[in-house]
TrEMBL record:
Protein name, as recorded: DUF2065 domain-containing protein
InterPro entries membership: DUF2065
Organism: Shinella pollutisoli
Keyword set, alphabetical order: Membrane, Transmembrane, Transmembrane helix
Transmembrane parts of this sequence: 39-59
């Protein structure tokens, strides 16, 4: 459970950095998201998830 909460904490830190360091980029990105095809968004999400799993596997392995 501790590892899970640490992961959520790191997610919040990174998310907060994006809002703090690049708010205008985030605004532009949020305007572009509805224009992107769902398949492209789904692929990007799956790729990010796979990269995260690979990183955890490499770090923990």
């Amino acid at each position: 459970m501790s590892d899970f909460l640490t992961g959520i904490a790191f997610f919040l830190i990174i998310e907060g950095l994006v809002y703090a360091l690049a708010p205008s980029f985030l605004k532009r990105l949020s305007q572009m998201l509805p224009l992107m095809p769902e398949a492209q968004l789904r692929f990007g999400g799956l790729a990010a998830m796979a990269l995260g799993v690979l990183m955890v596997w490499l770090i923990r392995g």
